[in-house]
Amino acid sequence: MSFDVVIFDWDGTLIDSVDHIADSLELAARELGYPVRERQALRHIVGLGMEEALSQLWPGITREEMTQLREVYARYFFQRDTTPADLFKGVDELLETLHGGPMLAVATGKSRPGLDRALGSSGLGRFFPLTRCANETASKPDPLMLRQIVSETGASVERMVMVGDTIYDMEMASRIGMPAIGVTWGVHSEEQLAAHNPMAIASDISMLRELMASGGTRD
């Protein structure tokens, strides 16, 4: 493998959870009497930390209102666990291929309790010795979580790669000079991802596997 460290986003990159997140946000808004946002707006904020996401969807909400929204959202979201059936097709085979090569890490907008629960219930926890969550560092696109992974691994930024489905993933990698690979099966389109100058964009898992093997280039 050509990379020393491969950092994956979680929702929309490894796990097909974007619609479940949007559904849970909509249900929480309806229960609490907040204006229901359009589906595209609910999907667009996936990848941000929850505070940043809620502030974008309902500007001006108070700290107390945000806490209540988070609690009701979590109740709906955790009505079902992430399971191996929620993995995008081919993700488990990709991670098995990479396992034992580059170090694998996760950088996500999820909370620590949410990610730990999902790592266990999805069966993917064994692949990721290093993870960072928005609630323990800073939300994307701030690159702090990537800086922390760089520091902890001691790897060169140029020998690392961020893999994600959102412009937030692409931007935070770009801000510290880290290569990035966008994937088109999650939140943002190929055109949106390309605007942030990733080294490559994968349209399916087999292409991503090829890019991992070749250091981000295709023959």
UniProtKB/TrEMBL annotation:
Pfam families: HAD_2. Keywords: Hydrolase. GO terms for biological process: DNA repair. GO terms for cellular component: cytosol. Gene3D superfamilies: HAD superfamily/HAD-like (3.40.50.1000), Putative phosphatase, domain 2 (1.10.150.240). GO terms for molecular function: phosphoglycolate phosphatase activity. NCBIfam families: HAD-SF-IA-v1. This is HAD family hydrolase. It comes from Halovibrio salipaludis.
